[in-house]
Amino acid sequence: GSVLTGLPPISVLLKVNTIKFVLKALTQQDSLTAMIMQIEETPNHEFFPQIYDTKLFLLWKFKVKGNVTLPSSIRGMFFTQLQTNNFIYDEPLMKLYQCEEWNILLREGIDGLINQDPYSIEPLHTAEELETLINTQNIMNFPLVLRSFSRYQSSILMDFLHGRCLRFQNFVYSILKYDKDSHAP
After folding, report:
1. pLDDT tens-digit series, residues 87-131
2. By the 8 A CB rule, do 1 and 12 touch?
């Protein structure tokens, strides 16, 4: 569903917005920054996963930009070691990270589709073929269901994609009637 609409899943959107919040709070240098520093040193805190995600983002950011050397592990990285300009981000960078996270979710879904059982029926596509279909940046720029579509237009498109559209079924039937070598999708 998220691929059709061109919108990342809510879990990815929440993760990216949380990272933005933590990074903005770290640039303010106020009491919220001090609270985040305390949470960073308390792994059992309920907000520690958000701090961990922010550190993962920073490691990813520095690998992409390649301008800062950081410890290779998250355990060796502390916010106090970094300067405030390291917490600054821009929208294209966050969009790229959002696409990376969405790609990870899509790959996990593809791994669930591919059965490695030797006694199962062969899948239609290999893992490599399915991997080439994942391009979330392109999906976000050109979604299949445009946000400007009316409810009626999007319903017709979804019916067509699911095979419930009578017009499409009639079209397929008329093609199959004359071309016996073809088969319905």
Report:
1. 888 888 898 898 888 888 877 776 665 556 565 555 556 666 666
2. no
Beta strands in the chain (DSSP E): none
Rounded CA gap, 76 and 86, in Å?
16
Indicate whether 185 pLDDT > 60: no
Q: Are 95 and 140 in contact (CB under 8 A)?
A: yes
Q: Who contacts 61 (Cβ-Cβ below 8 Å, separation ≥6)?
A: 89, 93, 97
Residue 175 in contact with residue 182, Cβ under 8 Å? yes
CB atoms within 10 A of CB 62: 16
HSE of 171, CA atoms in CB hemisphere, 13 A: 8
